[in-house]
Write a structure and sequence with these properties.
Pfam families: POR
Keywords: Oxidoreductase, Pyruvate
Protein name: Indolepyruvate ferredoxin oxidoreductase
Strand order of the largest sheet: 2-3-1-4-5-6
GO molecular function, one term: oxidoreductase activity, acting on the aldehyde or oxo group of donors
Number of helices: 8
Number of domains: 1
Organism: Oceanidesulfovibrio indonesiensis
Low-confidence stretches: none
Length: 199
């Protein structure tokens, strides 16, 4: 898609904003106009973090209800909560592995059954890619790199004018070499998992 509204959501400590910045930087390096914003971010680990990347000259960083072409959820409950932002025919890429938010940890809310969440996601999306992001991150060498696995899974779906190789080039150029290798491995694992899920 030439223009795309991408809504990213997760909880603190998952690298949601790192993923947002890398996605925006990758698009810029491909010559695509980018508008990006952090709608709401809680500083503490476990707080909800929401950000946006809009590609193709869309000027406002805000994504309204029913406007997101792509929803990337780094935590399944947060993906579920954000489904109201998904446009008809939109695509969802989500982790299947829970990181219970503060409200659940404090006993103020119950975590829904993961099967219920997956069912709702698949019903809402024209295409849903569900991956164990934390497990893929651990396999690459750091659980936090699960965010890159999800980004790569989305790019492997050929929904944007650039793909996984462009993301990997951005990682190599912009991340500290000490962590770049882990994130490059996570990108490969995420892309492979996405392609396998679509087989």
């Amino acid at each position: 898609m030439e223009k795309a509204r991408i809504f990213l959501t997760g909880v603190g400590g998952q690298g949601t904003l790192t993923a947002t910045n890398l996605l925006a930087q990758t698009a810029l390096e491909q010559g695509i106009p980018v508008t990006s914003g952090e709608i709401h971010g809680m500083a503490q680990r476990g707080g909800v973090v929401v950000s946006t990347v809009l590609l193709g000259g869309l000027l406002s960083p805000k994504i309204g209800l029913g406007e997101a072409d792509i929803l990337i959820g780094f935590e399944p409950l947060e993906t579920y909560r954000a489904l109201e932002f998904l446009a008809p025919g939109g695509i969802v890429v989500s982790s299947t592995e829970a990181v219970p938010p503060v409200s659940v940890s404090l006993g103020k809310a119950e975590y829904p059954d993961i099967t219920t969440i997956e069912h709702a996601i698949r019903n809402a999306a024209s295409r849903a890619i569900m991956l164990p992001a934390r497990t893929l991150g651990k396999k690459a060498g750091a659980v936090q790199s699960g965010n890159i696995a999800l980004l790569a899974a989305m790019l492997a779906a050929d929904v944007l004018p650039f793909g996984v190789d462009a993301l990997k080039a951005t990682i190599e150029r912009n991340l500290n070499p000490k962590i770049a290798g882990v994130n490059l491995e996570a990108a490969d694992l995420g892309a492979e998992a996405a392609l396998a899920s679509n087989a």
